[in-house]
Amino acid sequence: LANGQPLSGAFFRRHCAYVLQEDRLWGSLSVRENLEVAAQFYMGGATAAARLEAVDRVVDMLGLGSAQHVKAGNVLIKGCSGGQRRRLSIGVELLKSPPIMFLDEPTSGLDSAAAAGIMRKLTELSREQGVAVATSVHQPSTSIFLAFDRICLLARGRVAYLGEASAAAGYFKALGKPCPQNYNPADFLLDQTNPDFGDEAAVNEVLDAWERGGSGKEHDIAASSAKEHSPVEVGSGADPAGFLTQVAVIARRTTLVYVRDPAAYIGRGVLYLQMSVVFGLIYLQLEEKQEQVQSFVFATCWGMAIPSYMACCSLPAMILDIATLRKEQKNGMYSAAAYTAATFLAQLPLVLTMTVLTSLPSYWLAGLNDDGGRFMSFMWINFSFLVWCESLCMLVGALVPNFVLAIAVVCSVLSTFFVFCGVFNNRDDVPWVMRWLAYISPHKYALEAGMYYVFAGKTFDDFGECVLDPAAHGGLCWGATGEQVLETVPGLEPDPDLALNNSFLWAFAAALRLAQW
Q1: Rg value, the chain, Cα
Q2: What is the pLDDT of residues 51-91, one digit of tens each?
Q3: Residue 242 burial (CB count, 10 A)
Q4: Which residues are paired to 43 by β-bridges?
Q5: What is the DSSP letter of 156?
Q6: For residue 166, what is the DSSP state?
Q7: Are 316 and 263 in contact (CB under 8 A)?
Q8: Beta strands 16-19 and 100-104, pairing class
């Protein structure tokens, strides 16, 4: 219970804040940008001036003024120090004005000075803002231990002591276990309750003593050391932004993160451009001849398939983002639906950019089709296909937290669908238990349309000569026109329903986004 109310999920999101042991921040955003975004989520009903004032207040309170324009940083981006990141994590949640704040080992990984500084800030927060701060710590220093008003000492899931921190040593002295002079009381308490490296029987004796009546003795043992405070107004919790505001803020933040983070799209864009040029040079200026029909087919096939695999490059960054958004949703920043819609909208122009980089060089270097209108249609179907690939990566990133395993899962799915694209096998020859995969393969719908845009309108003037002397033309005669070639090559359609193919790709992408939600 919290203030007599059940600590439900809805109550937690409204009135509580949780700071993880590991800092979950947006590394490519500055300290101030992280705070401003949090203010937009948590203070939806406030004016812009009020939000900026709240951000300034948190910056001053936590001593982040010198680092407010420094990126928060992550494994790929150099940013502020560990102590500053921890204070920023606390500051993000302070903008929620929570009556109750939970922190999981806020001093872990910090040096003694930074750890003491964090605890001083938390003590000031509790004293001046009226926030109930509950935190877990391991092996605190004397100064950190003395910063606590009350402590709960646990061993093997059982309570060994619950009460005033300053009275803990007196309680153990009454049990016949006095704390040595000039000894860190926290270390002493841990020594008395650690069954792994101490006397297990003695630890059980301490636990049994509390269960027999320690809780009733608490007030007799401890002279109250609680300090008197002037009345303070306790915050009522978050005033969350509306759905459309959440979508707009997340979309803007996501765009900034993706543009600034080299692991998200910039690096992938370079690879897309490089591979597109390589494939264009491999199939440089194909000619409309019978012996080069297969080259047209494979240039189109690989030109669309390889970029789908390269979408895996974004999985590490996506998985880091997923961990952060789970923390933010737990704290009630925004809804999962708002995040799903906003990331989809933010990714569309970036995926379109990737489509241009992967289609433009290879298409014209290979000379797939000199009709400009068909090129635009080809690029659109490729864009629709890459949107599906991006949606697949988002879903897998949400389900599989290990990026190595996530990459393996995505590659496995893509390879399975690629085999059933229609170019490499006859659908009717596939065992019936697996034949259904041919009907849901996005590769099939993308390549059917892509091949049509490449071959439609072409003429192969050497078809008559090929019929007379097949050996002189590679041994196979495919047709005099692109439409005849589409009818002859197994797995291709001479007259596909282009609108239906495109609709299937967007429907598949939408289904994956809904599953992610």
Answers
A1: 32
A2: 999 999 889 888 888 888 999 888 778 888 888 888 898 88
A3: 11
A4: 239
A5: T
A6: G
A7: yes
A8: parallel
